[in-house]
């Protein structure tokens, strides 16, 4: 009897040890049996307030998750604050989130300077700074900053990719580059130069900057044409990008035109710029453009539309930020589901660093999210596409875009 | 020498100058009527522009929407004066400036809230009227023409109508104006209405070029302000010239650097350099290039 | 002189309370950090107030001096390994010189023209900080990350508590200096220039010198604030010093109360706390709420919070005397 009981006991212990569901629940501040608190900051006010819709999208995505029963029985409490895109205010509101509101981690905070301002603080406090909303390449350095992780493909790699494509396909290329004079634009400059390499640097015949406050960038486009460029890498943000596309057509400059995926939305950039002017533009994207007719019957986009209709009835469906917010929130949802009842900061970070081939419905087919202990770059692939005047026609294979 | 390049830069400078000039006109209008520079003028123009966009989106023909917007903006300007600014007639100048800043952020925020922040295309009525050339777009020609029409209108109004004269009097010397029977308060309201109407036209001229979003005027207001001061803040003609000069000056820096082959300022500092030039001019000619020197009474 | 004694006594009590504040149980490091920012902005506002409130010169560009002070501190700490306390006097000297030099041409400009010149300055400084010729020092668009100082002598304080006390110490000295300066001959000269420029000239006040010096001193105060702000935030970048910073400083000065020293503190409280309150009220349009705050505040208290409080005190006194 006693031996039998012993064996039974052993078996029970084995079962207990093997089944994580029965493992003891572990919590850090911000997590409990009923709730997971997530902190977020983004500009809802000021000149960068256009990004604020990402915050609204994430909030309404988690509203949907909560309506459907939450994550492992816990409701997500998404606390989002306005930082006006000002680094000092980001520090202030993120400290409020961590110290006053006691969030489990900080998620998708927007902007390169703003995230730089809080990176040291969050890493010192050992609070995850997950899936930051910036395409700088410096967010995937687990050795230096084990608590910081990016999400989207980085700008520099995108720039390098265009450069490599040009070297392979356009032998007599004379490249003109248009960039915004800030961290965002400078990343592209660096990437394009890296992609070209020292010996092809002479192919970059002009790189011209503009300021966010410049009313028009006509002068810059004339400079690029004047420099004799026959390839145009346009890394401008939407407003300037649309102006550039139109002005190039107006002055009868017809280069092979590459456009950053930040500004590749059909409804809000290419149509205002004139679809006929935008014909032939090449981009490298990772998301589905919800305004692109080719996804009219796509299941992922249909689900997204249903969510938009139910949870964001007043929103502008052309706003690509709602696709971004939806997709990044889904990535986080996956991480939190995998973390189960072990909701410590360390475990959230560990789960974030062990995503395997996650295919999100709003990312292009074949683009999967993978991370590892030494790989803090979740999305590392893009797909080239050419604008036909109506739709982005995908071509070629999915391209690895791992930062160097 | 690349003449095509120089020519293109010159025309693009003039086209930008036309944008600055149109905003400068609205600033001159409000200054002439109230002796204040309304920092919210740009945002009010942006808001008017959204109203026009909405009317067109609802299906109104362009010119109907155009004139409706002007009328709505005029009423809005009068309302702002009568409801808000009226309460600050005796407040210190800086308090009034804070109110302007308040209006600026309110209009910016509300526009994004109502119409979302995504870029919108704003139609140009001139595309079918004027021919397209490589050098200047049809819309740019239309803008210049519109500016000349407003300019003439303002000139005639202030110079030859009793109402215009009364308005100037009310702004410059409210006490004496009141003594001779000018209804100063209504003159101020009228000034606000006219400035808002001129601003609305400016917005509808600017938006087809730079695309419509809530930050439509964020960068342009400074240029308009500099143009107005450069030309002489109380002189509409001067302000328009100031706009063209500023536009040419900015592109001129690029052209000169390009010809010499040395980049010192480049695109990054061309605005800074242009502003330094404007300020230098103002130091030596404080009433602007074309402004009247006003003698101060002690 | 009894009035001055009474003022000093009040200031002493407030200072003592401010020193004790971080040691009240329940006041978190985050709150102390936020209050440090209030002190930093109060110093900046006092600087702007010397110029705008007392001397009547209008500035839309004090964010530029704040930026210069911040970068002086960041570069000294990051590139030269200097201790944080040494950066404060250095920022003061640099901004005094920069402000004075800017004040020389600005002398000839008044009202709207000065507004344009200072506006241009606010726009140009972040632009120049990004320029490639000085990128080595400024870190270009990426800015500079600096390390927060630990309390000295092994004092049992948190970093935030120490920085708060350090900032408070600097603020007390600067406020005392300003108070001394403004109530004496210099202060009267400044006010005379503001109110009756020509009369001041004919009375033998060297208006040109006074005006440029005022610009220098004003920039110095704001620059010191910039340095302290950089140390508290641990980061500087061109994006931290946009034109919006200059505008909020102007808002702070006017809302706090022009030509009043305590006004600077109220103005600083306003610019630190109202944006957060506004966005708590509405995430859809926080600026709209903020704008309404501005207009309502100006309507209720056209002479600022301090002016409003004094008026209220006078009313209460008058009522008491009447009864």
Overview of the molecule:
- The complex is a heterotrimer of chains A (404), B (298) and C (323).
- Chain A has 404 residues and is of the alpha/beta class.
- Chain A has helices spanning 2-18, 52-67, 87-100, 112-125, 155-169, 183-196, 218-226, 238-250, 266-273, 275-278, 299-311, 321-339, 345-352; strands spanning 26-27, 35-42, 75-82, 105-107, 129-130, 175-180, 204-210, 231-234, 256-259, 282-285, 342-343, 381-387, 392-400.
- Mean pLDDT of chain A is 90; it is low at 12-22.
- Chain A is globular and about 65 Å long.
- In chain A, 56% of the residues are buried.
- Chain A is 41% helix and 16% strand.
- In chain A, strands 3-2-4-5 form a 4-stranded parallel β-sheet, sandwiched between helices.
- Chain A contains 13 helices and 13 strands.
- The longest helix of chain A is centred in the last third of the chain and has 19 residues, at 321-339.
- Chain B is mostly helical.
- Chain B has a domain at 22-223.
- Chain B is built from 11 helices and no strands.
- Chain B has helices at 3-34, 41-57, 62-83, 93-115, 138-160, 162-172, 174-179, 184-210, 220-231, 236-260, 266-284.
- In chain B, helix 1 (3-34) crosses helix 6 (162-172), helix 1 (3-34) crosses helix 9 (220-231) and helix 3 crosses helix 8 (184-210).
- The longest helix of chain B is centred in the N-terminal third of the chain and has 32 residues, at 3-34.
- Chain B is globular.
- In chain C, strands 1-2 form a two-stranded antiparallel sheet.
- In chain C, helix 11 packs parallel to helix 14 (304-322).
- In chain C, 55% of the residues are buried.
- Chains in contact: A-B, A-C, B-C.
- At the B-C interface, helix 4, helix 9 and helix 11 of B face helix 5, helix 11 and helix 13 of C.
Bin the helical content of chain B.
over 70%
Radius of gyration of chain B: 19 Å
SSE string of chain A: HEEHEHEHEHEHEHEHEHHEHHEHEE
DSSP, total strands of chain B: 0
Say what the CATH topology of the largest domain in chain A is. Rossmann fold
Q: How many helices of chain A in DSSP terms?
A: 13
Largest sheet properties of chain A:
4 strands, parallel
CATH class of the largest domain in chain A: Alpha Beta
Low-confidence stretches of chain B: none
Would you identify the CATH H-level superfamily of the largest domain in chain A?
Response regulator
Per DSSP, the total helix count of chain B is 11
Chain-averaged pLDDT of chain A: 90
The residue-averaged pLDDT of chain B reads: 90
Structural domain tally of chain A: 2
How far from one another are the termini of chain B? 56 Å
Shape of chain A: globular
Strand content of chain A: 15-25%
- Overall, the morphology of chain B is globular
* Ends apart, CA distance between termini of chain A: 64 Å
Total beta-strand segments of chain A? 13
Order of helical and strand elements of chain B:
HHHHHHHHHHH
